[in-house]
Structures are given as structure tokens and as C-alpha cells.
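Hi U.,

Before I forget, here's the chain from the pilot set. I'm dumping it here mostly so it's searchable later in email.
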Amino acid sequence: MFNPVSLKVVVSGCYVLVLRGGAMEGNLFYGQSAHFLLVVNTIILMAAAVLGFLLGRFSSRRIIDKSPIGGIQASVFGLLALMLGFTFSAAFSRYDSRRVLVIDEANALGTTFLRAQTLPEPYRTQLSHRLRQYINFRSQIGTVIDNPTELNKMMKKTQTLQQEMWGEASSAARRLPTPVTALFLASLNQSIDLYSTRVAMFRARVPNTILWILAAISIAALVVVGYGFGIVGQQSWFIIILVSFLVSAVIVMIVDLDRPETGPVRISQQSMLDLRNSLTGFEEKSR
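Structure:
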């Protein structure tokens, strides 16, 4: 049978394992796989509940009035529900913003490409070619998003194409200062701005401090649950396992929503793929 000291060692050992994994990946919470986080969090919360149970059994002889325990449990779980809801809302908001930005960038690039077809030669051919390359790179982002090396290479190529397109568009605007070129420049500028916004949103995460607080409250809640069972002398391991797993699952879902590069929850790039597939027809009919 576990004693409090051994359980503290188990909890500490689990966190050391997570810390080492996070250090290797460069991020404590976001650098781990979803399955690893789920298993480790569940073990930690179960160990916390068992620790609380043993403390409750130890204290039960000296506590006469056990009625306040239910109120304390309700208060701690209310705080945990508040933190889970707040953190989930923040993570989902970022996820939804990333999803909408994919559609916005695809629409902006589609408008830019269509307006490029109204430019005189040789700018129409040059800029259409650049835009096709650029859209092709942007549509492939989902295939390399979990590979930092390839992702950095693609981002550098994307920025190089942006500079080349802007240079050619600026040259066209200087030689042909017409409303057509002005509209094209505005669309191209919007497309580049949306790229920068997507990069910024890609890097935006729920701060680790908030996740640490959430983890601490989760552990405290399971300790209180175990303590309540220990006070009344009842062992309900099914409830402890179930609550530990459910709380861990919600935490993992929050982390997974907030990291678009890994995990089962991904941002769909279908809008970009549809745009890439439709370019050939538009370009041929504009000639």
C-alpha cells in the first residue's frame, strides 16, 4: 500500500518526466504528444487523489464534524470548472481565429490573382506565375507544419516570393499608374498582411503560467476528492479514475486546440487547396 511520502515521490517523478520532455521539445506543455500528456496527467491526478485519501484516513479520527468537506469539494471543483472554461475559451478562440484566417487569406489571394489577369503584359504573365508559386506554397503549409525545418524553409521561400511580387507590382505601378494597378497593389498588400497575421496567430498560445495554475487547481481538486473519501472511510476508485481521466482529457484538449502544428485537431487548408486547383481555369479564360 502507498504511503504519503511514496505518493509524493510518484507525483514529483511524473513532473520531472514532463519537465525533461518539455525541455527537449522547447515547450513544457505544447512540446508533448496528446497521448503522453493524457497518460501522465491522469497518473498525476490519480496519485493526488490517493494521497488525499490517505491524508483523510489519517485525519478522520481527529475530525468530529465532517459536514464541511462537501462544501469544500464543491468550492474547489467550482474553481476548477471556472479555470477549465476560461482556458478552453481562450484556446478555442485562437483556434477559430486561425481557421477563419485561412479562408480570409485564400479569398484575398484569389482576388489578387484575378486582378493580376487585368494587368498588361508582361506584368500579367510574370505576376500570375509568381502568384501561382506563392499560392502553391501556402496550400502546402499543412503538410510541413509539424516539421520545423521544412516549415522554416517554406516560410523563407514564401517571404522571398512576397518581395519579388511586390517589386514587380511596384514597377508596374510606376510605369502604369492606373486604377487597375492600384487595385492590384491593394489586394497584394492585403494578402501579405494576412500572411503576417497568420504567422502571428500561429505563434500565439495560452501562456504556460495559466496552464500551470490550471494543473495546480486540478491536483488540489483531486486531493480534496480523495480527502473526502478518506474522511468518511469509503474507497471509490472508479470515481477517482473517472474524474482524473476526464479532467486530464479536457486539459489535453485545451492544449491540442492551441497548437496547430501537432495533435489530432488540425486547421483545414481546404480553402487554399480549392484556390490552387481553380487557378488554371481562371488564367486560361482571361487570355
